[in-house]
Amino acid sequence: xxFAGRTQFWPDGSRIRVFVLPPESDxxxxxxxxxxxxxxxxxxxxxxxxxxxxxxxAPKTIDTAQAMQDIIGxxxxxxxxxxxxxxxxxxxxxxxxxxxL
Length: 101
Fold this sequence. Notes:
This protein is 34% helix and 8% strand. By secondary structure, it is mainly α.
């Protein structure tokens, strides 16, 4: 599972760069609860274990959906999440998961 730090490389061998929205954002809350089936604080604890055990890097927190779109589009190997497909640009490949907010 990528967002739990268990999968750290894409099939081509490149490192996965994980980006998340702030824990208090509605989109992050929905992503954790509905798609990962955990609470945001549980995701944070998982990442703390990954970092402290030396098994990986914590995801970078991105402040806004626009900034998330920009950083994903500019960073090789990046993965993140957005609330709606309307926030996407053509440099990002979209994978639809779950129901919209």
